[in-house]
Write a structure and sequence with these properties.
With about 150 residues, the chain is α/β, with parallel strands linked by helices. It contains four helices and nine strands.
Length: about 150
Amino acid sequence: MTGHVTTVDLTPGFYRNIDSSVRYADATSLPFPDNSFDVLIANHVLEHIPEDAKAMKEMFRVLRNHGFAILQVPYSETLPTTIEEPFIDDPVRQAALYGQKDHVRIYSKTDYIHRLRQAGFHVDPLSPETLAPFRIYAIQENESVFLCHKK
């Protein structure tokens, strides 16, 4: 079995030294037909996107039936709801609110799972203990990963 990797970003030039084939794509309007991918990985992407629900629906749309997505974001186990200002444009305030100058939200864990389900995904959280053997691949030590299935 052979695979093909398609790398996209809103600012592909930033990644040219890492992947020369990276191409432009807006996550809220992906340039791919329905059911294009078996696997989709978006590692710390959705917290940057003002219209995250639209991006989640697009990711679901391009994923094939029985495919899966790994959609990792910063989240809080203790927040009762997501804190967000989707169209904030104040790097100092963003860093104070969300821990990084280009984030527009920090998800509560329960709200994040709810949003993924609203987009159509079946969600299976994978605990840090389950992921321990994969830390050599830059998985953050104390963070869960959400495996999202399209059935």
